[in-house]
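Practice problem: predict the structure.
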Amino acid sequence: MKLIGIFTFSWIFLMSSQMDCFGQTNQSGMKRIASSPLQSDFKMLRDSLQKFHPGIYRYRSQKELNRIFDSCFNSIKDSMTIPEFYALTSYAIASMEDGHSNCRLPRLVADEFMSNAGVFPAMILFINAHAYIYCCKENPTLSGNELLSINNQPLDKIIQKLFSFIPSDAGISSRKNWELPEYFHLLYYVVFGDQKEFAITYRSADGQTGKTMLHSDNIRNIFCNNPFPQPDQFLTFSYRSGNIAVLQIKTFFDGFLERTGENFEKFLDSAFNDIKKKGTKKLLIDIRRNQGGNDGNGALLYSYLTANNFSYYKSLESSTKKFTKDDHAQLQIQMAQKNNFSGKVYILTDGRSFSASSEFASIAKTNQRAIFLGEENGGGYYGNTSGNDLSLVLPNSQISCRIPLVKYTVDVKNLPNGIMGVIPDYPLYPSITDIIEKKDHVLDRSIQIMQSHQFH
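Answer:
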């Protein structure tokens, strides 16, 4: 099973050819820890990753990661605050390019930050590496504007810096776009320091640029309504004009489905029986914001899209064992469903289509079974490292780190040109206005594309 904090930072590693680790900012009033115990913590983290993480060298060579880890360790020369050290460990984790590995601040330190720090006073969303103001209580008229600079720092440079602390499979940026809004205020605070005022440049929807001054506020005061609330139902089935069937599958995790009284197997069987009864020729499977879940659900979904039995996983392994077909059902040949769909399949994804849902997309891609719309999905095409995990608490800083213990390799053919994710055939992105107004023009546009396609 694959399932996926609070980030705070004070050092910034700007990606460079030398891969040097850090440079400090001032964080007055925060407790500092001497260098020796922090070096001990970092050594424990490094040793644990190298001992237990079976996919540590999937995307970066051992030589390259050793150079990064050495640089980070050597940067611990003086005492550091816990957020400063957290930045160092987080960069080291993100350098592996594994989306299931991460670190978290100790709860007490996170609570202190939430209660006392003054941060950038607006909620920011990121769409295709552009920053947009979702809401700003200090100046509500800024809602919906693109943010171009903060205190003379261009947003593309800010995004580049902050992305380097966010883990994602193969460094796929579509996932970083979706993850950064959750971490932006803490990241920005520790990277650029404690700032009381923010001179911003912005661009409105009609292309006009403007400037204004904002003032720091407590993070608890700046939040407005959640742009992406948890759905009441994770599984929905409907029809659109043109006899198009739409399956929206927002999770593969049985635990979430149990809470809402949904059953994945029964849902699929009922939906595909109805599709066959109606003679539907086009099917859209929407897995946006599906961050994964139970391994078998992805394989089960694909079994309704093929008339042939198929292989799903090529291999599963830990740092000490290679699993066999007797250990894991999805290492066995998977059986096609009798009521499988033989028509045209479209799959709609975004940067939070991750983990088990990315594996499903990879199988559909390698078998040329679908046309892809939306964004590059957030997981690696060839697999991921997830499953059971080790929760490591570093004793001196109390930072906790998650180390996944199973390397999954999906049974897929190689992609050309070093591509590591599933690239959409039809790139589609929501606008900030869509998100604010709770409209789904990406889905509407996907349906229009499907309606325009004629098949014989």
